[in-house]
What does this fold into?
Amino acid sequence: GVSTQPIWRKLWDDVMKTRPPNSENITCWRKKFLETFFSNVLHGVLDVSSDWRLNHHHFSPLLHSSPHVSQLTLCNMLQGAVELAAEHNQKVLENLAGSLRILKFQHLLSSDQSIRRSLVLLLHRLIHHGSVSQVSMYSWPVPDTVLLILILSMSAGFWRSGNALAYHSSPCCVCREEDKAQSQEPAQERAERGRYNEREWSDGENQKGSPGAPEEADAGVSGYRADARLDSVPSGLRSPPVQNRVCEEATSKVLLDHTSTQGGSSPRCVSDQLSCQPVLRKTRRRLKSAVGKKRRCLRQSRGPHADPEDLYDFVFTVAREDNSGLLDKNTTAGGENAENWTSSSSGSPCGGHAGCKKRGGSAGIFSLKATQRFRSVSTLELFSIPLTGETCRTLSNLLSSWVSLESLVLSYNGLGADIFCILSGLRALSRHSDCHLRVVRVSDVFSHMPCMELVCCILSAFPQLHTLSVSFDLKNQLEGNKPEGNPSCSEVEIPESCLEQLEIRFPREPLHTMLLLPVLKASKSLQQLSLDSATLPCSRELGLLLEALRECNPNLKKLSFHDVNLAEHQKEVLLLLQDPVLQVLMCTVNLLIRRITFSFCRLFESSTTEFLSEIINTVKRNSSLKNLKLPGNRLGNHRLVALADIFSEDSSSSLCQLDVSSNCIKPDGLLEFTKKLEGHIQQRGGQIQITHLRLFQNWLDQDAETAQEALRRLKAVCSVVNDSWDSSQAFADYISVM
It folds into this structure.
């Protein structure tokens, strides 16, 4: 019953000798210490010999701390991956397979073949046979295509395990045990499973041959029958459907690419072979012929001069150049007649449209039937990693059957026109009945299509989404150059959705309620709405939005406006701050909004004293509002002092969190606000209503002594969050960029 937190905190000071970042947010010092300790030892930052308690022949730093590591970051030249994949750390890797949940890559550099071998072994153990559910990649300005595709492919659960010998002295021990278990299976069951797989393959080919079959039966990706393959795995090796897709072994090899290689693949060849283009329609006879040629090709390519450690043998195999003419001919035809990427019947993840072709890359087919399907992660995050056209097509292809994926974050990847390729892969994924995607976040510098079109496109394909975030900084001058013949996504009908959180950052686009209305109508469960950097084309637009929210989204709890000029919309602002039963255009509005944000909305830019008084009186009568955020609205000292009246004795407000960051507040104004707040608390008999006050980036450094007194007295009343902000330097920076 005695807490050990102080002991672990002291151990941090003794061993780490650094101040932990965000120490106020650390809830468990034991976990924080052991995870950081493991990472520092792994990357050579911490020398265990410097502490007598750690320098003992019975103590293994990595082995003893590994069971407590749930999050690990690998960076630079992947030295940590090499160390963990070493033979002497096999037990450490086994511990991590059970404890690690989040694997991060940061600031990666190009790597050689030996490092990639170690990474393959590490990813196979931690993802395919481990518990890693999230892979995040950060800050890779010039990504190594080979390494990036390797991480993406294995995160999606693809690997030709027959190539394990090329990366390690022996196959994966877990795979070996599973193979042993399958080898002990009764011969009759193996024969029945073999007949079942053959029947499944035959049925798929017959569907391809029938003119009325769905087009996804032709797709190398979306035609893959994941569930059927999973049925062929012994029940003892099965795992839960979302997080554990274990070893769905392919039963046939298909033609994959038109390029023939006699050894290792170059990075250019790799990305070309993995790029997804219109899938060819072949008869079963032609396919069998191609398979025969492929097998002869593989036997020839594994001659005395072949590279047995070709990195991408685990993802794809290649065909002879005999077939390249056929592929080029069909691909050209497919490019000219690219199917509508918004069409619900398109089976190919990437339609080969102009947006995908702009960056080059030869045609090819990436088939999942040439690999084993292992467990895959449920969360993929890519931050500040430029994606080329070839990489986008590869990612699109992987996404098209990544049914375990629950959360996808693509942030500042320079997608441009390749956003259509990603959308094609997502649309193919949406046709899988066992798709689990619930969160999609897309952000970039330039938008290649209007924000509302992108929102409608994603939501029409994934009505089961819970969170959708679309954010762009600037509008692309070439916006609107979509593939010819494709209708606008805003015209696509949106089915009733499960959307609970919608965030849109407009690149200075006008906010047209009529375009947002179909989304709001389809999202009856919407609880959070955030609109950022939008312009209001007319004075009635905000009123129309409130009316739409009243009619369509009665469950809305959080509403946020950021960088939207509301200086001329005082009436609508007051309506939003009113009691739950609001009056909008003479209609009753039952909106139980508990958190409202007006961030950098210029509320008090040209306001009068009467407007401030109306805001205060309106909030005082609102018993449902819990959180009010007003950062960047030029409150100043006198308006801040006036806001203290919200907590007066005659107030029925339930407001407990107030954010007044970036509001030109000076120390004397904060002290006066504090004294007035103390007076109201005394009048209420010591009852403290406000619990959190945020004061970031105010001018509190102009009188340090007064600021310290105000903060000391405030902290006796509520939790105060502020920072050490140099207002003079910030003003100088502001002047320098004017």
About this structure: The mean pLDDT is 75. The longest helix spans residues 187-209. The first strand starts at residue 71 and ends at 76.
